[in-house]
Write a structure and sequence with these properties.
single chain, about 240 residues, globular
């Protein structure tokens, strides 16, 4: 089978697999709630931990990471080149963010993105993931995670430099530039997802430009995290 056709088939398979909303299902089963209407409104691990329980966040963490990992590994199993593996990984991220099973409205795909990046280049992804944890004490994880995702594509471009090459397991060779471009597209998916959800009632009280900036930096419509998290419980 031609590689291009195989890539297309795996792309649609990865999209459907990525669309499985485990976080949503756990919240419904454990607490009878719709994650899209509580807490941050995201269908993902962080909202499960805050709205359901920390322990229920663990299977969500494993599953959402696994979406990206398995998508890339499946493409690798069939012998597709690195850039096609990344394309199949994109499908899993799109499926997580815009799942057919939840009317195309779910999470932000950060964990699935990390899974894709880790499957392609584990060492550098681990380093950048740990760097993103710097944002946790300051409650700025959405910002530091976004920066780390961007750095994955940037370091891939520079992976042939002596100072950085030791941090990479794989030699991407002639695929290095095209792979970096695809990884940059993966980076863009995160802010695109943040920007395209409907503006909340709190967001309507400020300018659209301020809303977009808050979404890009903090993944919410307003600057105050406390007010944003409690918006669905206060009347």
């Amino acid at each position: 089978m031609p590689q291009a056709l195989l890539c297309v088939l795996l792309f649609f398979g990865a999209y459907l697999f990525g669309s499985i909303p485990l976080a949503y299902l756990i919240a419904k089963w454990a607490r009878g709630i719709d994650l899209r209407k509580v807490g941050s409104g995201n269908v993902g691990m962080t909202n499960v931990m805050s709205s359901v329980s920390i322990w229920w966040g663990i299977p969500v963490l494993v599953f959402d990471l696994g979406k990206g990992l398995l998508a890339v590994y499946a493409a690798r199993y069939f012998g597709l080149p690195f850039y096609m593996q990344a394309i199949v990984g994109i499908a899993a991220i799109i499926g997580h963010n815009w799942p057919v099973f939840l009317k195309f409205n779910a999470g932000r795909g950060v964990l699935t993105t990390v899974g894709v990046a880790f499957a392609i280049e584990p060492y550098m992804t681990l380093i950048l993931t740990f760097l993103s944890f710097i944002g946790i004490p300051f409650r700025q994880l959405p910002l530091t995670a976004l920066i780390s995702i961007f750095l994955v594509s940037l370091t891939t471009v520079l992976s042939n430099l002596p100072g950085l090459s030791v941090l990479f397991i794989n030699d991407f060779g002639d695929q290095r530039i095209i792979l970096a471009l695809i990884l940059f597209i993966i980076f863009l998916i995160t802010p695109v997802r943040r920007m395209t959800v409907p503006i909340s009632e709190l967001g309507k009280k400020i300018s659209r430009s301020e809303v977009m900036l808050n979404r890009f930096l903090f993944d919410r419509d307003i600057r105050s995290r406390k007010e944003w998290i409690s918006r669905n419980t206060t009347k």
